[in-house]
Design brief:
41% helix
């Protein structure tokens, strides 16, 4: 299960994710992002309550990052990742693609 809390303020989309971003939850989150991305200037995601991310979740992040790059916008910013997700990012190279704090 994935819960999201989204706010859009001054062109910045801020999303808090809670639960799992996996094969079951990423399609819905993908659609939400596709609807929200047009018109944003920056995207920040807070992973403090995200427990797990699968390859399907990584594809969702990749699609968002690609949209930002295609529109000459700053990289996707990710906050508060746990050690397991950090390791996944490092193994897949996402740590070099995203702004991680």
């Amino acid at each position: 299960m994935l819960n999201t809390e989204k706010t859009l303020e001054n062109g910045e989309l801020f999303i808090k994710l809670e639960g799992r971003l996996d094969t079951l939850t990423s399609p819905d989150f993908d659609r939400e992002l596709e609807e929200m991305l047009p018109g944003v200037e920056r995207v920040t995601m807070d992973f403090a309550a995200l427990e797990y991310i699968s390859s399907a979740g990584l594809r969702t992040l990749l699609a968002a990052q690609q949209y930002l790059e295609d529109n000459a916008l700053p990289n996707l910013k990710v906050l508060n990742i746990n050690d397991e997700i950090r390791e996944t990012f490092e193994l897949t190279g996402f740590d070099n693609m995203l702004d991680i704090e």
